[in-house]
Amino acid sequence: MKARKIITLGSLLISLLLIQCNGIGSKKDFPKNSQESSEIKSESTDTIKEPIWPVNKKEPERIDYEAVYKSLVSEFEPEITSEEEFDNFKKKSNYIKVIEAYDSKNSIEYFGGKENEENIRYYALPTEINTKEYSSNSILFGDLNEDGKRDCIIIAYRSDMYNEVAFLYVFINKGTTFKLEDVTNEAAICGCKEGGWPSRFRLQKIEDGFLEGVSECHYQDAHCCPSLYFRTKVEFSKGKLQFHSAEFVMDDAIQYRPTPTLDSILVGRE
């Protein structure tokens, strides 16, 4: 009987010792203070990080680019041309034959000239007023040289089988006739520095002595999609259309890269 009691007491003592040892070991696993606790918590959460905008740069403002572009389309809608004015122009200019004769004599240097002539495609000339093609207003009337007479610009597309570029044929009103005085292309007058792909000048209209429109410049963009938009003015000076000035509107690729400085994009801004 005594032996059983001794055995039972011994077992209880051993159990108590084991429980105490386990308690001490578990306490060592806990952080000693709140600082250690926060460090452990920080280490566990550091592996999950939300993407952030680069340091010292604000997250870009969310812009409805489609709405902005639609407002530009509305802003640069040219005045309605009357059939009477167009008929008068056709009689005094014979513009279709004049342009065809010019094109037959002058190979397009922008597309490589005579060496690439077999690959140059000439789209049909516009024959209807108040129409658009590829966002270009095909036939424009307005006073370009501020002489009080309304001049005309015919816009038609030319291609080298890869690039489609708007070409502008400028007819100056001489009173009894309209004379073809300049032929240029949108990339030459839009104000964008050359960046590999042709830049654009669309949504054109003649107003206040300027040819106005929207320039679309490339910056790290795909061939199809220039991302920088400007309100642009082109002047008729010394017998030629020439870039005058541009006002930044939007960058619809800012979610992929920061907007470049305008000096790096526009001509004449060194």
Task: Describe what this molecule looks like in 3D.
This protein has 270 residues and is an alpha+beta fold. The chain has one domain (65-264). The chain has six helices and eleven strands. It has helices at residues 2-29, 34-45, 65-75, 83-93, 95-105, 186-189, and strands at residues 121-122, 132-133, 136-137, 139-142, 151-159, 164-173, 178-185, 200-207, 210-217, 228-237, 240-251. Strands 1, 4, 5, 6 and 7 form a five-stranded antiparallel beta sheet that branches. Strands 8-9-10-11 form a four-stranded antiparallel beta sheet. A two-stranded antiparallel ribbon has the order 2-3. β10 and β11 form a beta hairpin. The protein is globular. Residues 1-7 and 21-53 have low confidence and may be disordered.
Element layout with pairings:
Blueprint: H1 2-29, H2 34-45, H3 65-75, H4 83-93, H5 95-105, E1 121-122, E2 132-133, E3 136-137, E4 139-142, E5 151-159, E6 164-173, E7 178-185, H6 186-189, E8 200-207, E9 210-217, E10 228-237, E11 240-251
Antiparallel strand pairs: 1-5, 2-3, 4-5, 5-6, 6-7, 8-9, 9-10, 10-11
Quick structural overview:
The protein is α+β, with helices and mostly antiparallel strands and 270 residues long. The protein has helices at 2-29, 34-45, 65-75, 83-93, 95-105, 186-189; strands at residues 121-122, 132-133, 136-137, 139-142, 151-159, 164-173, 178-185, 200-207, 210-217, 228-237, 240-251.
